[in-house]
Amino acid sequence: MITFKLAFRNLVGAGLRTWLNVFVLSLSYVVIIYMNGMLDGWNVQAKSDMMNWDTGQGQLWQKNYDPSDPFTLQDSFDPIPADFNTMIGEGKIAPVLVTMASFYPEGRIQSILLKGIPENQKVIELPTASMTADSSSIPGLVGKRMAEANKIKKGDVITIRWRDRNGTFDAADVLITAIFETNVPTVDGGQIWIPLSRLQKMMQLPGEATLFIRGKSDWPSFGKDQWIVKDLKSLTADIDQVIKAKSVSTSILYLILLLLAMLAIFDTQVLSIFRRQREIGTQIALGMTRGQVVRLFTLEGAMNGVLAALLAAVYGIPFLASQAKYGIPMPKASNSMGMAIAEKIFPVYSVGLVVVTICFVMLTALVVSYIPARRIAKMNPTEAIKGKIQ
Amino acid sequence: MESNKTVITIRNLVKTFPMGNREFTALNGINLSFAKGEFSGLVGPSGSGKTTLLNIIGTLDSPTEGEAIVLGDSVGELSQKKAANLRNMKIGFVFQTFNLLPVYSTFENVEFPLLLQKMSAANRKKSVMDALDWVGLTDKAKSRPAQMSGGECQRVAIARAIVKKPEIVLADEPTANLDAENSHNILKTMEKLNQSLGTTFLFATHDEKVIGYLKRIIKLVDGKVASDEIFAKK
Fold it and tell me: How far is A1 from chain B (nearest CA, A)?
């Protein structure tokens, strides 16, 4: 109790010095949680964007469909099961027909994936409702990356060529009615989206689809011989792998941040304690045992940690919460870095991250208070009184 | 108010310190004893061993050879805890550089040894105010060391040394950082405490002003007692 009282008195008495220590320490908490929250947020966002723009809550694939093998596309379609029609009409399931095609940007020929999707679908965030045009044109959507790579603008008409189910080539013009922005490359690069009914007609595949994307509803009944269920886990396996690989580098970054924080705390505490060695010598001369002195300084370090956590809560919680709510704007340049980065990243702070960070910073404050105090207390007090310990 | 009770006995005391590859002998065969209520001083040039002897008597250091018995305990055989307890209960220190705890107020500095004794708050307050009254600093109870003059700081240090009513006060060059007027004030305060409370005072000094107040002067030269003179009345 006396040690606690003296530690409290020392902290209060030190005034500005205490608050500087506490502020530096509180910055460690906030910066570490902020940085890691941003990285976690990036991962969470990448996955949720993938679900919102591409996978939905699950998919049903025609048994021959293999997105990594374009040659399977010519056989990857089957009639839409009758039980699906109601939900498709309500926009709860989106059938997608996929085929290979070519188009001719600036006189070049380029292979693309031509995808048909209903205009009324509500399962993914593609702005399919904007695929409206008079019956003489085929309305189409492209992603921003696709548009930039091929200098396509909204309102442009591009010629596409494809082969129907019989292998006959045909060509038509597509009017680009919207250019959508997403950070999910699997719905953007090298793809043109057009209304499903138009593509079915073009392909001579009325009422057929390559795959289905569902929202939160369960699948109606379907023929297990023609269709294969792809659950969310298998659809997001690739991104999960990327996140897992990234988590190693995230852990390394976390460790580096913790080490930097530890260095800052170590510097502050060691400097503070060595500056106070005369005080330590005096306390021993006045009757404190070495153990009491070490306990006093270690407790001061711990109290610094607690005060820092409180201070970090005072300005850190509003700051971190506002970042989580409004997001961190990413520079435009980050889009051309070859990585899928959203315009804004919304940090995610897990309880584990907060608890581990608080525990680690406090433990560090304890250790770096204990070690120099023990060293000074172990030395001859007559040297400490004179401030001669280096 | 002197008595013949011996409070400090030093026999054949030797203290050496490592200095590079060799040993430096700071004290060499010291034999001394001090009775309760003495107002005495170790005098001599720098490096003569005054502070070393004071530190050993104050249980802050231990002898290399020989014996130093302070209030019945042999310093070399005291455990760290017992030595700390002896310093806390029975020995007061006054340092050349005051060594006040800078973040504490005057009151808190003087209160510090009593906190270690786990004295009740009411008794602590009374003892601290009594000690401050002794040194004439009751009006500075809330001041910090940085807000006070050197003389006032040293008076606080004296109050801190005497607040627990120790049997021995060890003062290492207590006037070295003070002007003549403050030095005399401090010494008069100490002399008054010595006479009123019967506290044994032992100084380490080469300040003529201090020497003028001492009733016993032990001169140390090169770690040995060169002379030991007692003055009946100064």
Answer: 10
